[in-house]
Design goal:
With about 725 residues, the chain is an alpha/beta fold. About 50% of the residues lie in helices and about 10% in strands.
Length: about 725
Amino acid sequence: MSTIEETMREEPETTSTAAAPVAGVVHLAVGDDGIAELRLGAADEHVVTLTRERLESLEAALQRLATTPNLRGVLVTGPGPGMFCAGADIRLIQDITEVAAGEAAAVRGRTMFQRLQQLPVPVVAAIEGPCLGGGLELALCCDLRLASDHKGTQIGLPEVKLGILPGFGGTQNLSRLVGLPTALDLILNGKLLRGKQAKKLGVVDRLVPAARLGAFARRELDRLVAAGHKAPPRRLRGMARWLSTTPLRRLVVRKADRALQQGQARFYPAPRAALHCCVQAFTLPPEQGFAAEARALGELIVSPVSKGLTHLFFLTERSKRLGKLDGARDLDRALVVGGGVMGAGIAGLFATKGLRVRLCDLDLAALARAKARLQKDLTKQLKRRRLERHDAQAIQDRLAVATDWGALQHTDLWLEAVVEDLALKQKLMQDAIARGLPPDAVLATNTSSLPVTDMAAGLPHPERVVGLHFFNPPEKMPLVEVIRGDETSDAAVATACRLAVRLGKFPVVTTDAPGFLVNRCLSPYLNEAARLLLEGTAPEAVDAAMLEFGMPMGPCRLLDEVGFDVASKVSDVMQAAFPDRMVPCELFAAMAAAKAFGQKSGGGLYGANGTGSGPGRAVLATLRRQRGTPPRTASRIEIVQRLVYPLIDEAYRCLDDGVVEAEQDLDLGLVMGIGFPPFTGGITRHAHGVGLATVVATLDELTRTLGTRFQPSDGLRRRALGGRATENPAT
């Protein structure tokens, strides 16, 4: 049997017989039996995205199929094992700056995909690996979808995470396929499904073993061809039909609308627009529903929120590449010293991500809590069917706990997470080397404020000592600061970054400076929040202002979470480094002295459960009386300016001091580390949006009225003279 394979390029008329597959385009092969295989990329492509070139080649291939004589069926598949299509090339989203262009792109993409539906022959999609965004929208236009049980199979429409919605027919086709409740859950949350979940929800029709995906897909296609018709459309049944096509739909809409008005969801317009489009799949004729979806995409794709989230996406990709730098190597066996909250969390994370780890502490109760903590997380994942029971057991087996370090000759990562005591950390590192830690093993510290260079002083091979600063809780917080000491080698930094990426984190490399990036920037932010409290503003008012700004947690609640004892120690470190600018507010030491630490002590400013008044209110009241000045309540705008503008200034001071290399590090580090609102695109994008001149002028005014702690840096002032506001978002 002969095969004509055509590599579809910009000029579809040009074909070649048995052409070698070319990367970046789709490949169409039509056999003598009339069965066509549409492969979405070349076999050596590990990631397939819908670039401009690939879309053009896909359009040409679909036009060719429409005119192919004796065509009997079409099989749509990825380039090879583990990949289908990861969606649109994000650069295409970034480049669109006009509503009309965004709408036109949506119309073109959806019209192109619909040609699969319009073919008079059956079309079957064989899905393995990522099938996301435009990849799923393409698959939804096929008659049948088969998914592999390959561990890399992920299916979903995550467009809302980029500030847009599925614009190639996704809101319409998925809603009609699975019903409004399920479609809203998937689209509004950007959920990604494993193959088994996708089958259960009806997004795919079959779940098959990875080794036999191709054979099963061909068998299903042959069955439809033999029957002489396309697969009949699925009809909604039961509650899915009642909650989608009848007035009961209002219940679903009301529930979703309430959720979108709460928390950080209210800052993102894409989920609200997607909600309306999904409803229109049942209230408008198909063509009108598709047109409404295209208009919505056009409006969203040019919005500041979408541009900010797209900017962050590229920053996360940049961060992931740090683990691929020269000298980076994989780490497999770790010893974690210190079974407290951070050490236990880090050790559990290591085990979850495939490392064999030994957690050591002299406190048996702490070790028991660490195992229980990991089990609690695994049980939660089992209930949500994100893990199989044997996988959960394997993870638990990879975490060993002991009071003794044991033999170290096979350890390639040694990490301490003990109390912030420089002498203790130095001694532990010396002991590790004395007890046989291999000379090429990485020595890491989870310090949040102490100098990595001092820890490495006097050690053999100091080039392997690196800071790995996780944030609490380490299982959830996405940032890891990788701290380069004076002697730390490029290979050690690259290896630490590689580990962070493996753990699902975003590494940001910093120099060995006081507070590194996140804690240094947090210091003026939390200090000023405490001063607002002493002046008379209620903790609830301070937190409410910052929640309205877009922070995930107010600074007073954050202080309770971190602990006033920790805040006091960090503020002392920062004062020693910057005595003129970072004099700590007396509230920190007073709360620590009263043991009103926060959540760890049963309450701080708030109660034990994070609500109501905590024991720290009495401390606050005493300090206010000692001030002897009439209490005053700051306005929301004043609160935001006094907290955010010094944060901007401190971020640029970090850049000018060489703590990080680029503005991109500031944006990613503060979004992932302190929760600076992601929809802004990061702190520097927000600052440029407000206008650096406006920030400097406001800081100058605050300096005149409240003190020199607000004095803007020369670097920020210099930048302000060279630029102007591009936007003026409300403060």
